[in-house]
Each structure stands twice: as C-alpha cells, then as structure tokens.
Design goal:
By secondary structure, the chain is mostly helical. It contains 7 helices and 2 strands; from the N terminus they run αβααααααβ.
C-alpha cells in the first residue's frame, strides 16, 4: 500500500474507534499521531532495508506485530505519563492498521475464502520468528517507484483517501464540538 492509502486507512480506523467509544471529537494531536503511526513502519523498514541493507525486507522489523507491540506499549506509557494517552492510542491504531493493510486485498480475501496458501504472505507480521516473504520491487526506492502503475488496487487507495476526506469534513462541520479540538 502506498503512503496515502495507509494514511486514509489509519484515519478511518481511528475515526471508527472514536465513534465506537461514543466520543465525537478528535484532538489535533491525535490526528497527527494517527498520521505518524500510519507511516511509521515504512519510515523505519524501507530505509533500513533499501538504503542501508541491514534488514532483509522493506516489511520486516517495524512491520512485525512483535515490534509494534513494544513500540506502541512504550508510546502509551509515555503518553500516559504526559497526559496524552489519546495520542498514543491514535498512534497505535495507525501503526497496526498499516501492518495489516500491507497484507493487501488478495491475501485478506484469499484467507477469508479459506486459501491457506495466502498465509505465506503474512509471515512479516511475526518477523523475526518467521522470515519475511519475498516481494517484487523490494530492493530500492527507485525500483519501487518505477514499478508504480494505476491498477484497481491503487484506485481503491485513492477512493479511501476520498472517503477519509469526506469523513473528516463531515466530522469537522457536522458534529456538536466542531469535530476536533486542539490538544
């Protein structure tokens, strides 16, 4: 998934959580945190794998739910000590949504249909216990960008961005508190 897709999915997941908890507002800090969390795994793994070759894949260390649990736990601990628990929760939602969204629709729908062959693409979620699967275009930023093409998957990501923007507008202008407040 591309950065804009991760941002949209993270925001939509966080907004759903806020609504499920019966809260009608989001702080500016929480929105910033969900944005950072939604990009964090790629900000760590891609440079370490592609530029410095210290990781085996652009989906390994920071994409692992093992690492995510430690980082999110530390973020929550820091957030709680500083009175910013909601920002830590938002960061965690963005982070986990990124890791799971990278499975992609083929893997997710394949698993839902009972196609156990798709499990081979999930191993990055428990790296280093299992090796990361081999991905095409997983060796450099240039190679990754050069492989970009407008596919239905890319269009769906743009649709997520549109939905996220619409949800943001609606929550900002049609909620009792104005949608979000300063942290």
């Amino acid at each position: 998934m591309w950065p804009w897709g991760h941002l949209a999915v993270g925001y939509l997941c966080y907004t759903a959580l806020v609504r499920l908890r019966g809260e009608g507002r989001q702080t500016s800090l929480a929105l910033l945190a969900v944005g950072l969390g939604s990009q964090f795994p790629d900000l760590v793994d891609k440079p370490l794998a592609w530029s410095f070759a210290v990781l085996p894949s652009g989906r390994s260390l920071a994409h692992s739910l093992i690492t995510a649990s430690v980082i999110i736990g530390v973020a929550y601990w820091v957030g709680r000590r500083r009175g910013r628990e909601e920002a830590a929760v938002a960061f965690g939602v963005g982070y986990v949504s990124h890791c799971l969204a990278d499975l992609g629709p083929n893997v997710i729908f394949g698993l839902l249909r009972g196609d156990v062959e798709q499990l081979r693409w999930t191993t990055y979620l428990v790296w280093p216990l299992l090796p990361s699967p081999p991905y095409p275009n997983d060796s450099s930023f240039i190679e990754h960008l050069a492989a970009f093409e407008f596919s239905s998957y890319i269009l769906v990501q743009f649709a997520f961005v549109g939905v996220a923007f619409l949800v943001w507008l609606l929550s900002r202008y049609f909620s009792p508190s104005g949608g979000h407040r300063r942290a």
